[in-house]
Design brief:
By secondary structure, this protein is α+β, with helices and mostly antiparallel strands. The chain has two domains: about 120 residues, no CATH class; about 160 residues, 3-Layer(aba) Sandwich (Aminopeptidase). Helix content is about 30%, strand content about 25%. Helix 7 packs across helix 9.
Length: about 325
């Protein structure tokens, strides 16, 4: 199992672990750059156009469109690859501080499809992508699934009411020294980058914390070849199929040195909040189920949380609220 491998030899993760994401079936459409604002991009997605990635620097979106859809959008469309037949995979390569693009270990067959500001869109033969090491910094794979536009409408704050004594008791059980110790432990992994061994080791430590609080439904959510989301579920007593989510990302980044990214504020603090909430909730029954999640891939563009949310939506989960703890 991949988890067992990472437990046994985390130091070799970035050298040996192959990418596990299988080649995707082609769409039979063209890969295009859509030069649209967010509002226009949302409207295009609502028309069931297959927008798959948001480009940096306000450069719009990547999408797979057929000829009719391209014609309907006119000058806003720039074709990058005329036919997505599944033989190639698409990636966004980001620039390092020295101006060089993130390296691919075997550039044979590499095609540059679009040059942007501090990034470029490229394609590789699908077989070469499958052999690419998973721990490749600043390279984002483009998946053939709809980009999700999630913007919640503003909700008026609930009126002030008397403080629940149960909440007072839960808060009183949180010690500042424990908060500081948890943040320090997360820093001490050196880096929690989503494609480095430190992040894998951190995910296992987070898993162990959830287990130490007495939870049994604790798992790794494996969404691609990067380090996993860590998910802990506390079943509800009255509405077990309705969920409240408390989450925060545990990955970190330092653009000048990926191996030295302690990420105390961003986001060991938020991860500590998720863990402490789980510990405080452990001995108290609640009507709704609670899901505590430590996300990976946030620094690469909310990749881990997007993948989990997409899976939750596909499963028809009834999520009544979500609290995100970031910095």
């Amino acid at each position: 199992m991949r988890i067992s491998l990472r437990l046994a030899i985390p130091a070799l993760l970035c050298l040996l672990l192959p990418a596990l994401a299988a080649a995707q079936a082609g769409t039979g459409k063209a890969l295009v750059q859509l030069q649209l604002s967010e509002t226009a991009g949302r409207a295009a997605a609502e028309r069931d156009l297959l927008l798959v990635a948001e480009l940096p620097a306000g450069d719009g979106y990547l999408a797979f469109l057929d000829a009719a859809d391209r014609a309907s959008l006119g000058a806003q469309v720039r074709v990058l690859d005329a036919l997505d037949d599944g033989s190639r995979e698409y990636l966004i390569q980001f620039e390092h501080a020295d101006g060089a693009h993130a390296a691919l270990p075997d550039p044979r067959g590499l095609r540059v499809l679009h040059e942007g500001t501090n990034y470029r869109v490229v394609s590789l033969p699908a077989g070469e992508l499958a052999a690419t090491p998973s721990c490749l910094p600043d390279v984002m794979r483009v998946f053939r699934r709809p980009l999700r536009f999630v913007r919640s409408p503003w909700a008026e704050p609930a009126p002030l009411r008397d403080v629940d004594p149960v909440i007072v008791d839960m808060v009183a059980g949180v010690a500042q020294s424990e908060l500081e110790a948890t943040v320090q432990t997360l820093q001490d992994f050196g880096t929690r980058h989503s494609q480095y061994a430190g992040g894998a080791t951190a995910s296992q430590w987070i898993r162990d914390q959830f287990l130490s609080y007495g939870y049994t439904d604790v798992s790794f959510h494996d969404y691609n070849s990067w380090n996993d989301n860590v998910v802990c579920v506390k079943p509800g007593m009255v509405y077990p199929d309705r969920y409240v989510v408390i989450g925060g990302h545990y990955d970190s980044i330092n653009y000048s040195d990926y191996t030295n990214a302690p990420g105390a504020d961003d986001n060991a603090t938020g991860t500590t909040g998720v863990l402490q909430a789980a510990k405080a909730f452990a001995d108290h029954p609640f009507e709704y189920s609670t899901i505590f999640i430590a996300f990976s891939g946030e620094e690469q563009g909310l990749v881990g949380s997007d993948a989990w949310a997409a899976d939750a939506a596909a499963a028809g989960m009834d999520i009544v609220g979500m609290l995100n703890l970031d910095m």
